[in-house]
Amino acid sequence: MKVGSILALLTFSGANAFAHTGEPIGQHDLWKAWSVEPGIVIPLVLMAALFAIGSRQPRAASPMQKACFWGGWTVLTLALISPLHSLGEVLFSAHMAQHEFLILVAAPLLVLGRPLAPLLKGIPMPWRKKLGYWSGRPRVRLVWLALTAPSVAWSIHAVALWLWHAPGLFEATLSSDWIHSAQHASFLGSALLFWWSLLHGHGRPNYGAGVLYIFTTAVHTSILGALLTFARDVWYPAYSGTTRAWGFSPLEDQQIGGLIMWIPAGLVYLAAGLALVGLWLRESDVVANRRRYAQ
């Protein structure tokens, strides 16, 4: 039997074994509420397999890149299939924590891992040639260059964050698996684009601009977090009937979610900004030394 068929069989078996019955998750069954859905597990397994195969080839990935990729992949996997995913259906704060893991931990680690080359090397040669031909087309390159411009990536990420926290759209994710998947895909995709534009954008990174974009992202996400924290009304009534079992009122749950976006997320952006400042200063020293020796 082919490997793909085995993976599919295992995934569907796992989904049947661990899927919840549609009832709100309770504290007593949190530990077993793993969301082993084929549409999530198969892409994750496929990505891991391709990277494992491709990274074995010479000079495909450094040890640090491998560590970053596997760290990001692990966080991504746990965020999407661990009980945190199911808990996000009954607690807004858990839903917010899941999003922050995707945006602020998994995405930058995956970008630091620079997985594109190993993933391509893990693909069979005929497919690799087709992908190489397609990606090399002028229109595709122009679109990619436009999307990875820091200002464009920043804007896409900001719009995704604010749009999906509009009450109507956010509550729609709780009643539709497709909309929920679209939310996660847009959060992760825009975050990958944002971090890629800052760290591996067009040529050598512009650390000064990177500091500006991270600072402004920290500001507008903190504003959204503060709005959630200090709101007098519940933004997402769909959680009103599910938080009591966990010891929170709907408003308290919303306030905790706002604090998660505001404080811990802000600290991550601060750390990233300070790291870019350090790189910026080091690069300035290197340039100054080169000019001094050139004289």
The fraction of residues assigned to DSSP E strands is: under 5%
What is the overall silhouette? globular
Helix content: over 70%
* Number of structural domains: 1
Give the strand tally.
Answer: 0
Helix and strand composition category = mainly alpha
Q: Separation of termini?
A: 68 Å
Uncertain ranges:
1-21
Provide the succession of SSEs.
HHHHHHHHHHHHH
Topology record:
Blueprint: H1 3-18, H2 38-54, H3 63-81, H4 83-87, H5 92-112, H6 116-121, H7 125-135, H8 138-147, H9 150-164, H10 167-173, H11 177-199, H12 207-230, H13 250-294
Give an overview in words:
The chain has 295 residues and is mainly alpha-helical. The protein has one domain. 74% of the residues lie in helices and 0% in strands. The chain is globular and about 65 Å long. 28% of the residues are buried.
In brief, what are we looking at here?
With 295 residues, the chain is mainly alpha-helical.
List its salient traits.
295 residues, mainly alpha, 0% strand, disordered N terminus
